[in-house]
Amino acid sequence: MFPYRKDYKENAQELRKNMTPEEKHLWYDFFKKLPVTVKRQKTIEHYIVDFYIPSAKIVVEIDGSQHYEPRHRMMDSERDIRLKELGITVLRYTNFDVRKRFEGVASDILKNIGLEFEDMKFER
User: Fold this and answer.
1) 48 and 12 in contact (C-beta within 8 Å)?
2) Cβ neighbours of residue 68 under 8 Å, at least 6 residues apart?
3) Cβ atoms of 15 and 48 closer than 8 Å
4) What is the pLDDT of residue 15?
5) Diameter of the chain by CA atoms?
């Protein structure tokens, strides 16, 4: 188990209630159909990650345009390094990837958690 910040709980709950359209698409049309547990807006140390797959120790981040700004790139890099130190692999996809390459994103996530794409059916 990873360090948990109780003071982040309210923020994480708010983020779950107000997911982006791309996060909703990935959650309802992909993650909820998987035979493994996936946590959304999970607190790990002082970070709130978009999705966490505990059995594979994988974080999935869906990046909007703000993640291309220098400040956000630096913060994302620091976060990825810290999560890697905790033994967590971070998979990053853009909003565009989720909207336009949904099956490719799903296939890549499945490959990284060791599941087969052929057995899954997804909504566009």
Assistant:
1) yes
2) none
3) yes
4) 63
5) 41
pLDDT for 18-73, tens place per residue? 789 999 999 999 999 999 999 998 988 888 899 999 999 999 999 875 646 666 67
Q: Are strands 58-63 and 47-53 parallel, antiparallel or unpaired?
A: antiparallel
Burial class (CB in 10 A: 0-12, 13-18, 19+), 38: buried
Instruction: Look at residue 77 in the predicted model and tell me its pLDDT.
Output: 87
Tell me how far apart the alpha carbons of residues 41 and 14 are, in angstroms, rounded to a whole number. 9
Enter the pTM of the model.
0.83
Record the tokens describing residue 91, joined without a space: 């998979």
